Amino acid sequence: MLDQNKINALSDTAIAPRGLLIDGQIKPSQSEQTLDVLSPIDGSHLTTIAAATKNDADLAVTAARQAFDDGRWRNMPPAERKKILLKWADLIEAEALELAVLGVRDNGTEISMAFKAECGSAAATIRYYAEAIDKLYGQIAPTAPEFLGLVHNEPIGVVAAIIPWNFPLMIAAWKLGPALAAGNSVVLKPSEMASLSLLRLGELGLQAGLPDGVLNVVTGKGIDVGEVLSHSMDVDVMVFTGSGATGRRLLEASARSNLKRCYLELGGKSANVVFADTKNLEQAATVSAAGIFRNSGQVCVAGSRLLVEQSIHDDFVAALAQAAAAMKVGNPLDITINSGAVNNAAQLAQNLKFVEIAQSEGATLYAGGKQLHKQTGGYYMEPTIITNVKKQDTLAQQEVFGPVLAVTTFQDEAEAIELANSTDFGLAGGLWTSDFSRAHRMTRAMRTGVVHVNTYGGADISVPMGSVKQSGNGHDKSLHAFDKYIDLKTAWFKL
Q: Which H or E element spans position 417?
């Protein structure tokens, strides 16, 4: 149970300037330049983080390369690596409230969500992959008697991970867990909009016993750090969660450098499909509202397109609007808040611009659409519902990454499938129906990596999250995530 008094005390704590974590040492940028950290809660100045130079990023890659090449981590017995990762998970769990408050002050996610989805998820994810270390076996091939064919699982080398600002701990753990469990070394680049919790995560990793250079955390602007990592000849794997434009630049950099493998999660425009035969439409409306409006809509898998059967449109949208109106938007450090702050001023302005564009294209502003709590200096927005959105409209095709829901109607199952697949994205989706056969047909027909059936969100670490189309490639979560960080090496023996 979250304690508001403890949260208030932690939120009043001064935050010291933060440096870079390179080769086991906390150090300033070589240029000694810093970036200001502003809180989305009230626009106040929290602290500064080091603004890494290109030389700093190179040093981090060199440290990771040396740590990998000399085998200090990859050649450690699996049981020992497992102990270190389990201790790291324990440290995250022990410091969960402090980490959650630190992260909320930095990125604006409501504390009730951050405590579970950030710290709780990160600890559970690291622990999951730690437990898998000594359970991943190689293979013996079926060969003729005079031959022996072995297939070894080998770590690939140096992994560069670029992490977004919406769920930095959760998403970083999805990448760090399997990458480190497999024996790789990592350079982690947080978003400059949410670096504080990841810097602390790196420090806890050192406390747990990660050898120097195995995990490096380099803060700064993408044009400096990201460019170095993506073009480096010593980075073997690039993993990224963020925008499509940046993902394309990373692919181009891979082609121009060493053809490093790039695994990209590039967001979505996920369709949440509601049929008239849904057993509990009120519950569906409540869950659907949370699926787009929690964390101010700043969720990669957010159900940002509602496709609702024509016969129930009016009643369902009214119920959804009622559920949205009941959600409290405000200071994310308040445990009674359901939706916190938009991460930054530019994102808030973009959200509001999408509302204007939608109306200019003929859609109807049904609810919300305005900035909230402007007097606080923070960045808040009403949960926004826009109806009469056509499939070709901007709001139906482009990711907002804010609390803005586009509503479109359909007449039958065939039209629902056509609309669900009518964007360039394919990350997630939702489906509400009491017809099991329809649910099975729809999940197969929807071109997306994840389909939530009679719920929205909540898929745990045991199942993969991946993308199709322009939402990216590769999978986070589950044992399938190891595929990104392991090479298969064949040993062929003549006996």
A: helix 413-420
pLDDT by residue (tens digit) across 61-118? 999 999 999 999 999 999 999 999 999 999 999 999 999 999 999 999 999 999 999 9
Residues 239 and 310 in one domain: no
Per-residue pLDDT tens for 232-244? 999 999 999 999 9
Active site residues: 265, 300
254: in domain? yes
Helix axes 281-293, 313-325, angle to 10 degrees: 50
Domain shared by 311 and 451, yes or no: yes
Q: If you search the block for the tokens 């890494």, which residue do you land on?
A: 52
Which domain range does residue 321 map to?
271-460
Q: What stretches of 209-328 show up as alpha helix (H) in DSSP?
A: 227-231, 244-256, 281-293, 313-325
Burial class (CB in 10 A: 0-12, 13-18, 19+), 64: buried
Task: Tell me the percentage of the chain whose pLDDT exceeds 90.
Answer: 100
Domain membership of residue 245 (yes or no) is yes
User: pLDDT tens across 411-465, in order?
Assistant: 999 999 999 999 999 999 999 999 999 999 999 999 999 999 999 999 999 999 9
Q: How many whole angstroms separate alpha carbon 96 and alpha carbon 3? A: 13
- Both tokens of 393, joined, read 């409209």
Same domain flag for 303 and 249: no
Distance CA 403, CA 384 (A): 6
Residues 250 and 315 in one domain: no
CA distances from 276 to 66, 309, 401 (A): 59, 6, 28
234, 231, 253, 250: which is closest to 242 by C-alpha? 250
For residue 471, list its beta bridge partners. none
> What 8-state DSSP symbol labels residue 370?
S
Q: Are 59 and 229 in contact (CB under 8 A)?
A: no
Count of domains in the chain? 2
3-state secondary structure of 242: coil
Question: What's the token pair of residue 62?
Answer: 């060199």
**Claim to verify: residue 15 and residue 128 sit in the same structural domain:** yes
Residue 1, pLDDT > 90, answer no
Cα-based distances in Å from 292 to 321, 366, 394, 451, 456: 12, 15, 17, 15, 9
pLDDT at 311: 98
- Can you tell me whether residue 193 is helix, strand or coil? coil
